C-alpha cells in the first residue's frame, strides 16, 4: 500500500432552525472565506446544502493535519461562527473527522 496523503478532513452536519438558514449560511460563509484567506493549513472549506431544500448544512473542511484544524478553532473569525450559530441550531451538530485511506500501488 502507498502512503496516504497528509490531510485531515472535517465533516460537520448542522440542523438549522426553521427561518434561520440565511443567517446560518452568512456566518458559515464568513468562516469559510476567512479560513481560506488567513489559514495556510486550511486547503478547502465548502458550505453545502441538500438539493431537497431542507434546513441542513454540511461543512466539508480539509486541513493539512489535526494541528491545523486545532489552530482554526483558535482564530478570531471562528468565535463569531461558533457563538453566532449556536442559537440558530435545532440540535447539537454532528462533527466527524477523517484521514485519507492509502491507495494501493499498482
Automatic annotation (TrEMBL):
<dbReference type="InterPro" id="IPR011008">
    <property type="entry name" value="Dimeric_a/b-barrel"/>
</dbReference>
<keyword id="KW-0503">Monooxygenase</keyword>
<dbReference type="GO" id="GO:0004497">
    <property type="term" value="F:monooxygenase activity"/>
</dbReference>
<dbReference type="InterPro" id="IPR007138">
    <property type="entry name" value="ABM_dom"/>
</dbReference>
<protein>
    <submittedName>
        <fullName>Antibiotic biosynthesis monooxygenase</fullName>
    </submittedName>
</protein>
<dbReference type="Pfam" id="PF03992">
    <property type="entry name" value="ABM"/>
</dbReference>
<keyword id="KW-0560">Oxidoreductase</keyword>
<dbReference type="InterPro" id="IPR050744">
    <property type="entry name" value="AI-2_Isomerase_LsrG"/>
</dbReference>
<dbReference type="GO" id="GO:0005829">
    <property type="term" value="C:cytosol"/>
</dbReference>
Amino acid at each position: 500500500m502507498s502512503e496516504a496523503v497528509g490531510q485531515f478532513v472535517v465533516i460537520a452536519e448542522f440542523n438549522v432552525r426553521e427561518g434561520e438558514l440565511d443567517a446560518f449560511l452568512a456566518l458559515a460563509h464568513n468562516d469559510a472565506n476567512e479560513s481560506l484567506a488567513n489559514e495556510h493549513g486550511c486547503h478547502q472549506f465548502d458550505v453545502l446544502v441538500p438539493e431537497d431544500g431542507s434546513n441542513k448544512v454540511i461543512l466539508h473542511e480539509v486541513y493539512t493535519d489535526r494541528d491545523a484544524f486545532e489552530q482554526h478553532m483558535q482564530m478570531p473569525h471562528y468565535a463569531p461562527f461558533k457563538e453566532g450559530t449556536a442559537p440558530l441550531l435545532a440540535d447539537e451538530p454532528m462533527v466527524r473527522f477523517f484521514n485519507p485511506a492509502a491507495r494501493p500501488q499498482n
